[in-house]
Amino acid sequence: MTDQTMTIRQMCDSFDVTPRTLRFYEAKELLFPIREGTKRLFTRRDRARLKLILRGKRFGFSLEEIRQLLDLYETDDQQEVQLARTYEVAERHLKEMQEQRAALDEAIRELEAQMNWGAERLNQLRARAKAA
Amino acid sequence: MTDQTMTIRQMCDSFDVTPRTLRFYEAKELLFPIREGTKRLFTRRDRARLKLILRGKRFGFSLEEIRQLLDLYETDDQQEVQLARTYEVAERHLKEMQEQRAALDEAIRELEAQMNWGAERLNQLRARAKAA
DNA sequence: AGCAAAGGTGACGCGAACGTAAATATGACG
DNA sequence: CGTCATATTTACGTTCGCGTCACCTTTGCT
């Protein structure tokens, strides 16, 4: 690593993924490590992308969906049409995430309520066990 | 349906799933429809469970994880040990969901920021196009 | 009796996202 | 120089969550 690039092993250790995964992501055009001879060298850009990939996965997006969204974070030299299209994709994505958050909030509230119920029943059971 | 049970078709229409899915969930012991002769009759309990199954799926839980969690919502005639164990599972689950929400919030904020960036660039591009 | 609709049971298939094994190459080190 | 560690390519295998197909049974009309 020339201070800016990392080997596959360093990447794996940093992000807790396997080499297979990184090669797989490259094959799917999610990452673009440069080649020094036969080996891969992952750049700062690859690391940024990988971080977003892993996050996207945690929220249930497919690799293909993620691939499309990654362009959003590469707004360097885009032309108007491309940028506008990307913007729309992002809007839909944002809306999805907001809906997801709302649903998640509800689920959390319900689970908390259910747990309070369970806690009460536990107390009752234990009180009875003591009384006996 | 005797007012309390539903046929497979009614279930499919209500929850927007296929028969295959319901049979699959039964095979995986997520649902327990009663049998009238050869046919399945889904109870109120099955409907409650299915609702939770579908929600769990939206949050990225596997069917197996969901199966274990479903017991939490069947706090009818549980014994102390079982109930306590279930409670712990629920706690971990709740923690996971809360972490998920936090991460989601951050992702949303970042995406919003990125979109503002894109919006500005779009305006610049359009301003320049007008000036030319 | 005839027959179409609805339901059922295997069993095989499929895309996503990697795991894993085999064979080969590259580079560092004693 | 050998060899040990690390990487690479190729390719087949695996798990999950159903889809799909072929082939019966049951039920309700007409």
From TrEMBL, chains A, B:
Q: Where is the HTH merR-type domain?
A: 5-72
Q: Which UniProt keyword terms apply here?
A: Coiled coil, DNA-binding, Transcription, Transcription regulation
Does Coiled coil appear among the keywords? yes
Provide a Gene Ontology MF annotation, just one.
DNA-binding transcription factor activity
Q: Does the keyword rRNA-binding apply?
A: no
List the Gene3D superfamilies: 1.10.1660.10
**Listed Pfam families:** MerR, MerR-DNA-bind
**Residues in coiled coil:** 80-128
This protein is called what? Putative transcriptional regulator LiuR of leucine degradation pathway, MerR family
Q: Which organism is it from?
A: Limimaricola hongkongensis DSM 17492
